[in-house]
Amino acid sequence: MTNPILRSLSPLTLLLASCGTSISAQGTDPAQAGIAITDVATFDEPWAMAFLPGTNSALVTEKKGTLKLWREGSDQAVTVAGTPKVAYGGQGGFGDVIAAPDFATSGMVYLSWAEEGQGDTRGAVVGRAKIVTDGAPRLEGLSVIWRQFPKVSGKGHYSHRMAFSPDGQYLYVTSGDRQKFTPAQDLTGNLGKVLRLMPDGTPAPGNPMAEKGGVTAQIWSFGHRNLLGIAFSPDGRLWDIEHGPAGGDEINLVEPGKNYGWPLVSDGDHYDGKPIPRNKTRPDLAQPVISWNPVIAPGNMIFYTGKAFPQWQGQALIAGLASAAIVRAGIDGTKATELERIDLGNRIREIEQAPDGTIYVLEDGEGAKLRHVTPKA
Description:
- There is one protein chain.
- The protein is mainly beta.
- It has one domain (6-375): 6 Propeller (Neuraminidase).
- The protein has one helix and 26 strands.
- The strands form six sheets. A six-stranded antiparallel beta sheet has the order 2-1-19-18-17-16, with no helix packed on it. The chain has a four-stranded antiparallel beta sheet with strand order 3-26-25-24, with no helix packed on it.
- Strand 1 and strand 2 form a beta hairpin.
- The protein starts with 13 loop residues before the first strand and ends with a strand.
């Protein structure tokens, strides 16, 4: 997933992106980037964070299965009761969390996690519940609305990121290939896919293969590997960011019915050194808008829409694991260009925009810091 060589590269080493300018792989110092960073809280293996609309509170998932409620200005977070049992291990455990579009009236949140199957199998699921914050915080009425199919062995590439369409009508879910390669091209399962669902988890009408029914009717796009970010740009286009193998991380403009090539092509190679045909050898397949080699190992991605950093308006902000950075990418219609990477010194799992337009980033791993990114005074 990550490239351990990346952090040892010299300042003169350049990242080569398929589109746009070359960027220093070492990154910009935060002060030079015009930002200040304050450490505000600590979490244990955090994976995702979401502010609850209309509040100054955020939910944070921790991989071992704990959900935390944190309020801005506090250095402590409170454990939320009513969470599911998760299949913890490898890349598995608690995953994403997002608020429902109608949160103001429903109080509903959506969560993803890895669950055990029969035998030595596991798979990601999505559930929804009402979050109650009066008194001791808790989830009420948690129910599973979607599952990866089929469940397989291994503990990697669950992906299970989520995003609602701008109109709030559809739920998009990323489903990784579970390190099994070929299921990404198998349209009878939902591994290695982006899925478009109704808010209750059923396939959305009008999906590219809706007439086939079953799991196939969920599919929006296919041929994906390990999609750890999915977000709509301000103009309404859907983008994902995913891990390549040894090289070849990529950002994609996600369009209905398109095949994004994995494992037929990649701009990286297998970990054992076996080559993979490059994306450009198959012009019939959807091409990445940017591919990175060396990798940045993305944690997640948002599009910035706040006022605290007006110079970042409309840009993609990417949490970098191997790159230990905030990676900024400019979006121009269907094109993207890496603009800058701001070196934060540690692996970054999650990036989120606060209600006031400032930014929070979560480090990866045990004892991970929640860091508040504000304009430099």
